[in-house]
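== Protein entry: sequence and backbone fold ==
=== Local backbone shapes as whole numbers ===
==== Amino acids and backbone structure tokens ====
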Amino acid sequence: QVQLVESGGGLVQPGGSLRLSCTASGRVFSIYAMAWYRQAPGKERELVARITSGGTLIYTDSVKGRFTISRDNAKNTVYLQMNSLEPEDTAVYYCNAARSPYAYWGQGTQVTVSS
């Protein structure tokens, strides 16, 4: 069992930055692929960025060049650095830990980009 706790969301103006953090319980954090998803009102949840246990990175096209996912296995934490934020980035952001056949989700953190 893995418990995930996100933090770092909030209200930011367009063009601003936020860093999300997700800290996991347990002693085997390093073997999980970690990811950030988001869900905007009226839309399906979508993958934003993913980092495997080996460090392979995947980004959805709309955030490439603006968002950076990273992990610190010593701290059981995954980060999402979000720069040049746009109103379209407004959503609840969820942390995900996955290692087949298991997947775990955090409770979500709200990110609102508005002037």
